[in-house]
Design a protein that fits this description.
- This is H-type lectin domain-containing protein.
- It comes from Fusobacterium nucleatum subsp. nucleatum.
- By secondary structure, the chain is an all-beta fold.
- The chain has a single domain (5-106), classed as Chondroitinase Ac, Chain A, domain 3.
- Helices cover 0% and strands 49% of the residues.
- It has strands at 5-11, 21-29, 32-40, 50-54, 64-69, 81-82, 89-93, 98-106.
- Strands 1-2-3-8-5 form a 5-stranded antiparallel beta sheet, with no helix packed on it. The protein has a 3-stranded antiparallel beta sheet with strand order 4-7-6, with no helix packed on it.
- A hairpin with a 6-residue loop joins strand 6 (81-82) and strand 7 (89-93).
- The radius of gyration is 14 Å and the shape is globular.
- The two termini are 21 Å apart.
Length: 107
């Protein structure tokens, strides 16, 4: 059972543009991979603020990506948006402060 899946936690700040801090939790079950990124930025909410996340490993096909705004309690009204995901990266815009992004797909 212990060899069924692998979990990695790492700092990936260097793989994310326009961010203060980025952490990755990666879970792999055979070829299935779940990457959870927690991104912290000092950017104010704006459609012009973009953050590009380069995945730790390339997916074989476009991954399923979901985004959660971690600053829903602030006074800044935002509606974070995702560009089309690619096998190697995703771009997020119109966020304030921080967000969590999860990408699921096959490696």
């Amino acid at each position: 059972m212990e060899n069924l899946f692998r979990v990695e936690n790492k700092d990936v700040t260097s793989r994310v543009t326009n961010c203060k801090n980025a952490a990755l939790k990666k879970i792999k079950i055979d070829r299935l991979c779940i990457m959870q990124f927690i991104i912290t930025s000092e950017a104010a909410a704006s459609i012009n603020n973009k953050c590009t996340i380069y995945f730790d490993e390339s997916f074989t096909d476009t991954p399923f990506v979901v985004l959660t705004d971690n600053n829903s309690g602030t006074n800044q009204v935002t509606s974070p948006s995702l560009d089309w995901a690619e096998t190697t990266r995703i771009t997020v815009s119109n966020f304030a402060g921080s967000f969590t992004l999860m990408a699921i797909g096959y490696i």
